[in-house]
Amino acid sequence: MRLRVAIGADHGGFELKQELIRRLGQNVEIVDKGAYAYDAHDDYPDTVILVGRAVAGGEVDRGVLICGSGVGACVAANKIAGVRASVCHDTYSAHQGVEHDDLNVLCLGARVVGVEVATELAVAFLMARFSGEERHLRRLEKVKSLETAQEGQPGPEQTAESHGDSEAEAALEEDDKEEEEEAEEEEEKEDEEDEEDEDEEDDVEEEDAVEDEAEEEDDEEAEGKEDDAR
User: Fold this and answer.
1) In what order do the strands lie in the sheet with 105-109?
2) Under DSSP, is residue 92 helix (H, G, I), strand (E, B) or coil?
């Protein structure tokens, strides 16, 4: 299945866009989002939004934006949720951005790079695939959370703070639990000591009772002897 690629440019990148369409069109399916004619007074955000929405909405697989420096198009593209755009004027960044960061829009500056370099950059970008490695997925999820944070949902910092608060609350609960357990153990120990004291008192009372009974028997025996003697 051929890759579908949306491409767009303002007046600063119009000529380079046309040349890239001619060069890349044999290997990928190109969706031209304009400009369709040179207009020195057009504005790059108007084209950026068309390419960005096509990428974010799944109409195409990747996007290529071209303006004078690539910077303006990049800034505008990254305002669209679901778009991960970058200016890449070296082939390493063009393919590594896809492999590690799931880059889906390449931004080029027609006044910075010529047609040959731009072609190599576009090919490196379009041939690359996201690695899917756990560390890259984890980081990508944090990047995506920045978009939800703009919509009132917690971002990575807020999530981290919330996680920290949860850990602190859990630690406090654990401390309270330990204190309660220690108090219960102390109370049980005191109850055991009280029971031991009561047992000792009972033993003493029993001993006293035995002694009293023995004394009474002795007294009775002595009285009996006295009576016999008389």
Assistant:
1) 29-32, 4-9, 62-67, 105-109, 85-87
2) helix
Mean pLDDT of 185-199: 76
Instruction: Looking at the chain, list the stretches that DSSP marks H as alpha helix, in order from N- to C-terminal side.
Output: 14-24, 44-56, 71-77, 91-101, 115-127, 134-150, 156-229
Q: Which two tokens stand for residue 85?
A: 């755009």
Side chain identity, residue 226: E
Residues serving a catalytic function are 67, 100
Token representation of residue 14? 């119009």
What are the backbone angles phi and psi of residue 5, rounded to the nearest 5°? -130, 120
* pTM for this prediction: 0.67
For residues 129 and 103, the answer to whether their CB atoms sit within 8 Å is no
Assess whether pLDDT exceeds 60 at residue 124.
yes
Cα end-to-end span (Å), the chain: 136
Q: State the DSSP H helix or E strand holding residue 117, giving kind and residue range, or none if neither.
A: helix 115-127
In one-letter notation, the amino acid at residue 201 is: E
- Say if residue 188 is exposed, middle or buried (CB neighbours under 10 Å; 0-12, 13-18, 19+): exposed
Structure tokens at 88: 């890449």
